[in-house]
Amino acid sequence: MQQQKIIILDFGSQTTQLIARRLRELDTFCEIMPYNKFPSSDPDVIGVILSGSPYSVYDPEAFRVDLSQFIGRLPVLGICYGAQFISYTNGGNVESAGSREYGRQNLTFVDESCPLFNGIGTRSQVWMSHGDTITALPTGARRAASTATVENAAYWMPSFEGGSPVFGVQFHPEVFHSIQGTELLRNFVVDVCGSRQDWSAASFVETTVAELRSQLGDDRVILGLSGGVDSSVAAVLLNKAIGHRLTCIFVDHGMLRKNEFRDVMHDYECLGLNVIGVDASDKFFADLAGVSDPEQKRKIIGRDFVEVFNAEARKQMGAKWLAQGTIYPDRIESLNITGKVIKSHHNVGGLPKEMNLQLCEPLKWLFKDEVRRVGRSMGMPEHLITRHPFPGPGLAVRILGDITPEKVRILQDADDIYIRGLREYRTRLSGEEARRVLAAGVPADMKDGEIEVSLYDQIWQAGAILLSTVRSVGVMGDERTYEHPVALRAVTSTDAMTADWAHLPYDFMASVSTEIINKVKGVNRVCYDISSKPPSTIEWE
Ligand code: XMP
Fold first, then answer.
1. pTM
2. What's the CA angle centered on 72, arms 69 and 74, to 5 degrees?
3. 248 tagged catalytic
4. What is the DSSP code string of 457-521?
5. Residue 458 needs a FRET pair 20 to 30 A away by CA distance; which of 84, 158, 231, 430 works?
6. What is the distance between the alpha carbons of residues 121 and 117, in angstroms, rounded to a whole number?
7. Which long-range contacts (CB under 8 A, 24 or more apart) does 188-192 make?
8. CA dist 374 to 23, 61, 204, Å?
9. Active site includes 174?
10. Are residues 112 and 144 in contact, defined by beta-carbon separation less than 8 angstroms?
11. In this prediction, what percent of the chain has a pLDDT beyond 70?
12. Catalytic site includes residue 295
């Protein structure tokens, strides 16, 4: 059966990704495309949404789209700039609102026959954020809703020139503060566009496995595993599709977490993956000896990693594809139409040219929590799925100063106590906090409006940092000590681009601090990092 999809044309609004999130929550597949890249020949598109934009329709640099590619042929919903653009190009009028209209507004529906408002009643609270306003509706449109200050807050045309309907809303149904925004989007996607709402993790696995089989045929594929959720889910999916024609390579640079290489290799073997584990830690330690500069450390690790990976990859004679666990947010950042690169994409760079590998990225349309849902639906163990992100250079960027195997051992022991503690300490959450955690895909049962979850599952990422360039005095028994502090870091975030320090309970911090100082030789002080990003970063180096 065809994979129905909605196309969201991106005019540069900060909330475009949120529209996609809401549609996926409605079990409807969607793709965000740059405003000028409508896929005209794709037969699976069932509707089009035009996003908001930082521009006014009158700005000379404003993004313009040729609506005739789809208007009248497919149902269209314009949001904010999208609604204004349709009006401006179809006989209506848009003017500056004088002052920017911003924040919560009460919406009154004036045309109850408009299908966008099915089942919502006659009033709703919505979120406005615009500088222009529609002063004359496009030809053939009816006013559908108003607020106290915005007369044409929503409009619709039951049929554009005898074809499909068009809707325009000057508010943002996709943002959390638009109380019935999701219902409104549901009405467009389901009632108007006819979505079957059949996009689920299981259906994704089924269609993707079939697509991979036809794309890859009898070819062989190489994949670099990192122990993280994205590459692991990609590997399991490919393994389902082509079995042992997939070879995974997992490089141990010696700076993974305590026992991680052994434990993750064991998990991969239980999952039936064909994995080559390469212990290259001696090479990494030798090349890093005496190096303290963070950028230099990263460069050496990156270079060594490519060398080790390539040496293994070359042995895979006849491989035609390199698979990667790239996910949707990585791509959106690189597709960002305003041209700002926010985060460079970490992947296996510089593969040998003579191998002539093509790229296979089966998760490239998924958000992180969807990757987790896909992993769960394939029966992957929960600890692999909910694992925190971990930087490619590993503990090397969490040890200030030069790196030695002994310092890595100290940090591994302290980090292990901290992470085990976070997994064991459970708290009850309710209201918005509980919803935030559930929305991130954490499995928990809601009971009487409350959930019980571990601290580990409430935060985005945590880890210990060894301040090996610092020493301080302590006293243990009757002995004076002069050793290193360990800093603990835990952050909440949704995408690692911004992050806040996690407010961990004091009793938890007290017991972790005591356990680290008592058990980890070489550490006599524990600090907690209370910096947010920006201006700090998540990692210390
Ligand atoms: P920062 O420190 O830039 O980290 O706030 C943002 C996120 O990226 C992770 N990170 C990396 N991941 N290779 C990776 O695969 C790297 O070189 C790297 N450096 C940072 C970091 O752990 C956080 O999740």
1. 0.80
2. 75
3. no
4. HHSSEEEEEE-TT--EEEEETTEEEEEEEEEEEEEE-SSSSSBEE----HHHHHHHHHHHHHHST
5. 231
6. 7
7. 188/47, 188/49, 188/75, 188/77, 188/115, 188/116, 189/6, 189/23, 189/26, 189/28, 189/47, 190/26, 190/28, 191/115, 191/118, 192/47, 192/75, 192/115, 192/116, 192/165, 192/167
8. 17, 40, 8
9. yes
10. no
11. 95
12. no
Q: What are the backbone dihedrals phi and psi of residue 372, each rounded to the nearest 5 degrees, phi first?
A: -65, -40
Q: Judge if the beta carbon of residue 533 lies within 6 A of ligand 1.
A: yes
395-407: string of b/e by CB count within 10 Å (b at 16+)? bbbbbbbebeeeb
CA distance 373 to 200: 9
For residue 124, what is the DSSP state?
E
Nearest to 230 by CA among 371, 330, 357: 371
Cα of 343 from ligand 1 centre, angstroms: 9
CB 465 within 8 A of CB 486: yes
pLDDT digits (tens, 9 = 90+) for 415-426: 999 999 999 999
**Average pLDDT over the chain, rounded to an integer:** 91
Place of tokens 């949404």: 49
Could you tell me the CA-to-CA distances from 369 to 30, 69, 166, 453, 502 in Å, in that order?
A: 16, 33, 32, 17, 20
pLDDT tens profile 306-325: 899 989 988 988 899 999 99
Tokens of 159: 């049929």
**From the CA of 399, how far away is ligand 1's center (Å)?**
15
Catalytic one among 101, 114, 130, 174? Answer: 174
Please report the pLDDT score of residue 256 as a whole number: 97
| Residue 472 β-bridge partners | 483
Q: Is the pLDDT of residue 114 over 60?
A: yes
Q: Is 529 in the pocket of ligand 1 (CB under 6 A)?
A: no
Give the pair of three-digit tokens for residue 356.
């002539």
Helix axes 229-242, 368-377, angle to 10 degrees: 40
In the chain, the amino acid numbered 97 is A
Give CA–CA dist 270/247, Å, rounded. 15
Task: List the catalytic residue out of 80, 114, 193, 248.
Answer: 80
β-strands 472-476, 500-501 pairing: unpaired
| Cβ of 299 less than 6 Å from ligand 1 | no
Res 18: pLDDT:
86
Atom of ligand 1 nearest to the CA of 539: 2
Q: Is the CA virtual torsion 177, 180, 183, 188 positive or negative?
A: negative
Q: Which of 249, 250, 251, 248 is nearest to 284 (CA)?
A: 251
d(CA 391, CA 346): 9
Spacing, Cα 539 to ligand 1 middle (Å): 7
Cα torsion 304, 307, 309, 310 to 10°: value is 170
Among residues 507, 493, 422, 405, the alpha carbon closest in space to that of 464 is found at 422
Reported as type and span, the H/E element at residue 419 is helix 405-424
Residue that the structure tokens 């163990």 belong to: 381
Our CA dihedral for 341, 344, 345, 350, rounded to 10 degrees, sits at 120
Strand stretches in 69-121, DSSP E: 76-79, 93-109
